[in-house]
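Researcher: First entry.
Model:
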Amino acid sequence: MADLFTVTAPLMIRRPDGATIVIAERFRHPRGLLYFEPFWHLGDPDAGIHLAAGAIAGDGPWKVGDHVVQILVCHGTDFCAASTFQDWRQYLAENHDAYPPEPLIAAIARRHGVVDAVATLR
């Protein structure tokens, strides 16, 4: 059984409206899953931070309320998400000093209601 919070493969989430978002950071939230979009820290960070409310079920893909989280397979699943993920990886590689450190990311997650802010995908 794969745990959503320990799997190291890149993930994406499909929202109830059908939009797919690459997950840059993820945290267990008392009401479900708190996730950060790529590039969330540029501009208004709160615009790129979302709560998927609901019980977390499954072992990949995972259901979180009306959302579905799955491993991002870069070949053949969702070209747009795969492209976003590649852009995100490249950005991190070239700008690693510009990305917030893990303690700050954890503090932001706690501000959004996360109780035990243990990070993430990196």
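Researcher: Second entry.
Model:
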Amino acid sequence: MGAPAAELLRRRLVPSAVIAASRLTLPARLVAAGRRRAGRRGSLEMFFAFDDPCSAVAVIDLVDRTQGRAVELLMLPVLRRGIRGDPAVELKRSYAVTDARRLAGRLGMELSRTAPLPSGSTAFLAEWVAAHRQPSPGLSTFCARAMRNLWFESDGPPSRSELESIWLDELGTAPPAGRQAAAVRWDEARMGRRGPYETPAVWVAGRWYFAQDRPAAIVEYLDLLGWGEAA
């Protein structure tokens, strides 16, 4: 194909692609505009696991990227994730540490752990956050600080006392008492309905993303929907 023909094809296809993309996002943009007229904020659902190092990177990154935007982060911790009966689950958990180290390096952070956290060792954290339910800046910041404590400031077992102190500092109360397993199951069921099968994942206005790989795309979509900085 010669240069003139290629240029002609580009001029025809690019505007068509832009128009098609605009039509695809029109319903989400209309809903977002309606929320703003009603004085409501946008909503971003973050599915993550405290024992997942890639979730640690994604939570820290997205809490920072969305700070100041007119968006509520619904923090939805899960325990059960992945493909049921997957024979490679332990291998994937080990690789996640390597992958998280690479992702953290891009943000100028260094993972303090060289091995996965034992599954279930952070279940109490998932229960605290799932039971809180209401999105708030304090809860989002707690999740980011807890992830730093677990994955970037320690290589030993999770310190419940340190994490309780962070909770009190950010939310002004003691963590929820008693077992809150049902609240975590609710998050896991919601994740299944939204479509993601693995953490970390974000669902926003009808789209979901693997959060560790697509933070810039998530923010671009928020911009497209009009969820910039809060007034």
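Model: Note on the second entry: Helices lie at 3-37, 53-65, 89-106, 123-132, 137-151, 160-171, 181-194, 215-225.
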